[in-house]
Amino acid sequence: MEIRFLSDVEYAVSVLAVNEILKQRYCVFDLESTGIHHETEHITQVGAVIIENGIVQKSQTFNSYVQPLKPIPEAVERFTGISNTNVESAPRFNEVYSRFIEFIKVL
């Protein structure tokens, strides 16, 4: 893997290779947020699944809403399908992050 820093806040990753990826066990995860600027936006959902030998392990998934520190803009609600109602009683990021770390320890 090669990482090239473009600025203090941007970088590019290239020459990334995983040997025999179809024989590996790994986690694929996705984050949703209140917007696209990491400096000012907050995570609203974390989802993940374990893949082993090229097969999604449907019994090994992780999904949690996250209560953001700011409201979700209407345009983002429409785009993601995640509403302010969905996240109003969700756990805060530190709790979800701790649970996510426990989930990936199976790797």
Notes on the structure:
With 107 residues, this protein is of the alpha+beta class. Helix content is 21%, strand content 36%. The strands form 2 sheets. It has a 3-stranded antiparallel β-sheet, covered by helices on one side. The mean pLDDT is 95.
Order of helices and strands: EEEEEHHH
Number of strands: 5
Number of helices: 3
Largest sheet, in brief, is: 3 strands, antiparallel
List low-pLDDT spans.
Answer: none
- Structural class by secondary-structure content: alpha+beta
The strands making up the biggest β-sheet line up spatially as 3-4-5
**First CA to last CA: what distance?**
21 Å
The whole-angstrom Rg is 16 Å
Q: What is the mean predicted local confidence, pLDDT?
A: 95
- Work out the helicity level: 10-25%
Quick summary of this structure?
By secondary structure, the protein is α+β, with helices and mostly antiparallel strands. It is 21% helix and 36% strand.
